[in-house]
Design brief:
2% of the residues lie in helices and 45% in strands. The protein is mainly β and 742 residues long. It has 3 domains: 425 residues, YVTN repeat-like/Quinoprotein amine dehydrogenase (Methylamine Dehydrogenase, Chain H); 92 residues, Immunoglobulins (Immunoglobulin-like, Sandwich), CATH 2.60.40.10; 196 residues, Sandwich (Jelly Rolls), CATH 2.60.120.560. The strands form 16 sheets. Strands 47, 50, 51, 53, 58, 59, 60 and 62 form an 8-stranded antiparallel beta sheet that branches. Strand 48 and strand 49 form a beta hairpin.
């Protein structure tokens, strides 16, 4: 039964289409024949001028590509659909970056993913928009991962690719959300592929040291449908794909594991990294693990795979973020130094090594028809015929731009996206027949767990939202719901730092309603149906006007690192506030104070409202500790723009990405003094906008003129209001009397 279920579940992976960045076998290989012997830029079937750093995906005669165009504040990422035979654009959508740390044009480091059952297309932008389109380009739904889940941003711009499993879209990112999900951690999320509703969240690792874009690799293990992935905490993890339950982890690296993992045979998992090893001072390793073993309980409550699970290791192979390709029992890896290495996947022995370029980063090889298609970062694209004793180079050419992504193979053609162009090599063939896989079967076990959909909600007072329930058996396989009506009750986790209840009720079966008089709140509900239980997380935040002066907070929590200091936790429903802010009493008033005891949390980006808001005035009183030579930075976020008083620079700055849109004017302000900061974003019908702010010493008359007025040609039309604090030199910043008004 389980074997048949697995075959049905992954039947779509054998299709000729290239639906995911690592192709139909999840390992970079294709079963196609008749592929081009050479890949020379001047002999390409077609070329499109579009910068990119990922991999196109193909279904039938449509190519879906994720790239970018423009410069400065007008640079936009593009999701486009092209004709596979000609490269002609069928449709495209553009998205501006916002509030990200991306530098050096490191955009579109990721790929779209196609659902084999519906043809829908899913992609994550650099700003953390998770988007779903139908095949004709209609946007089906979107989630703002940064504003809804606290998705964190990094200068490397790595996004990765979603994965489709049953009715779920699986993604991998680092977040700092609220409540138990407040600590910054590498997490995996599942969303309903049709509605975008969140289904589960999973944090399988330990404290992260890096962000990872290792994509989940689907498989079965111990009767369960699982996926494997590398993490930013240096682990290889195994997670139940239907429930998010972490099953085991294996410590591999002192840094992040970014390359996608490779399934080999019935019970092995291949992994490579380029960071420092945990058991030696050298960096980089390729290993094979037994994935048929169970983890042993660890003191932190997780299950850890023992060192005995390691089958072999090769310390001569290091790849930081380039993913290998597997062909039979041969593994081909491009190393950090631009070499192509062939490895016996059974023993780990290196068979040969060939120098193809100077260095390698994310670019990864693909394989098909007895050939390897190998991009190298410096713009080399080689077609290689591997042999037992070494490779034969069929072609090696310089393409326009750098190669950061991986090739895709479909219908006799090979696609390569560089930082300047999208190339298609091969010939025109008759259109493929799109194969729609049968729906995977349900499990047959008894219901053991309920999963609310959505599993996390945001409500305004008086608003209602339908909540459906699904059920899984003891192995996490979806099963039919038991008969009867579920009961819902408020639930406080025993480990909760803040013992709080959500200001909402399940007055009607299948719907949660926030109380009309509800104040900002957050909490959980427990669903019970028969012997099965499930849990829903929720927040209630009011519509504007929103005000907060913190006077209602009881500052009674004893500080762990400052003797004699007491504080209160920040508002629970705020995203990204935990460990970064505290409510303290300063000069007789309760205010929000930036924490400075953990250097990992020097910067805080915290969202206090709904991502759909627009046209609001966001204001706050702000102050910094310090002296004439050393101050910190503090401000607010309005409609995806950060408006910040910068202490050391003595400036008022507007930014939405420090390299894309960043404008400042001089403003002299002093430490230990409160100032009032008020901001407004106005957007015209043609999309042009202005970001305006004024700041003055609290208690003095408000100036008539704006202190700063910044135009933006492609202005953000909406966004969650928020707060910003940055204390790199252990100088606290403070906010008080926060307001968001229509």
């Amino acid at each position: 039964m389980r074997a048949a279920l697995a075959l049905l579940l992954f039947a779509h992976l054998a299709a000729a289409d290239w639906l995911h960045w690592r192709g139909p076998h999840q390992n970079g290989s294709s079963d196609e024949t008749g592929l081009p012997e050479t890949a020379l830029p001047d002999k390409a079937l077609w070329v499109v001028s579009l910068a990119g750093r990922g991999t196109p995906v193909i279904r039938g005669e449509r190519v879906y590509v994720f790239g970018y165009r423009g410069e400065g504040g007008d640079l936009q990422e593009i999701v486009a659909c092209l004709d596979a035979a000609t490269g002609a654009t069928i449709w495209e959508h553009r998205y501006s970056d916002f509030l990200s740390d991306v530098i050096y044009d490191r955009y579109s480091i990721g790929s779209a993913t196609i659902d084999p059952a519906t043809g829908s297309v899913h992609v994550i932008t650099s700003a953390g928009l998770l988007l779903a389109f139908d095949a004709d380009g209609k946007e089906l739904w979107r989630r703002s991962l940064m504003e809804e889940l606290g998705r964190m941003t990094f200068p490397n711009g790595r996004n990765g690719a979603p994965v489709i499993h049953r009715d779920l879209v699986l993604i991998h990112c680092m977040t700092a959300n609220w409540g138990a999900h407040g600590p910054a951690q590498d997490r995996f999320y599942a969303f309903d592929k049709r509605s975008g509703a969140p289904v589960w969240a999973s944090a399988p690792g330990i404290r992260p040291k890096d962000n990872s874009f290792s994509a989940p690799v689907l498989a079965t293990w111990g009767g369960k449908e699982v996926f494997y992935s590398g993490t930013g905490c240096g682990n290889v993890v195994c997670i139940n794909a239907n429930t998010g339950e972490p099953l085991w982890r294996f410590g591999l690296s002192a840094g992040g594991v970014n390359a996608s993992l490779i399934l080999h045979g019935a019970d092995r998992l291949l992994a490579v990294h380029g960071k420092e090893n945990l058991d030696s001072s050298d960096s980089g390793r390729l290993i094979a693990l037994r994935r048929d073993l169970a983890g042993a309980p660890n003191k932190d409550g997780s299950a850890v795979l023992s060192p005995a699970a390691e089958v072999w290791r090769n310390n001569e192979i290091a790849a930081y973020s380039s993913s290998p390709v597997l062909v039979g029992d041969r593994l081909y890896v491009t190393t950090e130094t631009g070499d192509l290495a062939a490895v016996d996947a059974l023993s780990g022995n290196q068979l040969w090594r060939e120098k193809l370029g100077i260095e390698q980063l994310h670019a990864s090889p693909a394989a098909g028809d007895g050939k390897l298609y190998v991009p190298i970062k410096d713009g080399v694209f080689a077609v290689v015929k591997p042999g037992d004793q070494g490779p034969t180079i069929l072609s090696k050419a310089k393409v326009a731009g750098e190669c950061i992504g991986a090739p895709a193979i479909a219908n006799g053609r090979v696609y390569l996206h560089t930082t300047e162009k999208l190339y298609c090599f091969g010939a025109v063939r008759p259109a493929q027949v799109v194969v729609v896989p049968a729906a995977p079967a349900l499990g047959s076990g008894a219901p053991a767990k309920l999963i609310p959909v959505p599993s996390e909600v945001l409500l305004r007072p008086g608003a209602s939202l339908a909540v459906a329930l699904t059920a899984v058996d003891g192995d996490g396989l979806p099963v039919a719901l038991p008969g009867g009506t579920a009961t819902w009750a408020p639930f406080i986790p025993p480990t909760a730092k803040v013992k709080a209840l959500l200001g909402a009720d399940f007055a009607q079966p299948g719907a949660i309603t926030a109380r009309a008089e509800a104040k900002p709140s957050a909490g959980q509900f427990e669903a019970t149906l028969g012997a099965a239980k499930g849990y829903l997380r929720g927040r209630v935040l009011p519509a504007p006007p929103i005000t907060e002066d913190f006077e209602s907070f009881a500052t009674t929590v004893a500080h762990e690192t400052e003797t004699g200091v007491t504080f209160a936790y920040p508002p629970l429903p705020w995203i990204g506030a935990r460990f970064k802010w505290e409510v303290r009493t300063v000069n007789g008033a309760k205010v929000l104070a930036k924490t400075i005891d953990n250097k990992l949390f020097q910067r805080a980006v915290t969202f206090i409202g709904d991502a759909a808001l627009s046209g609001c005035t966001v204001a706050a009183d702000v102050m910094s500790d310090g002296n004439k030579r050393k101050m910190s930075e503090v401000g607010v976020i309005n409609q995806r723009y950060a408006i910040i008083l910068k202490g050391n620079a003595q400036e008022l700055e507007v930014n939405s990405n420090l390299e894309r849109l960043r404008v400042a004017v001089p403003f002299a302000w002093t430490p230990g003094t409160w100032y009032r900061l008020t901001t407004k974003v106005e957007v015209a019908a043609d999309g042009r906008g202005s970001i305006r702010a004024k700041v003055w010493k609290r208690g003095e008359p408000e100036p008539a003129a704006w202190t700063i007025d910044v135009p933006h040609a492609n202005a953000h039309r909406n966004g969650a209001p928020g707060l910003f604090g940055f204390s790199p030199a252990e100088q606290r910043v403070y906010l008080d009397n926060i307001s968001v008004t229509p």
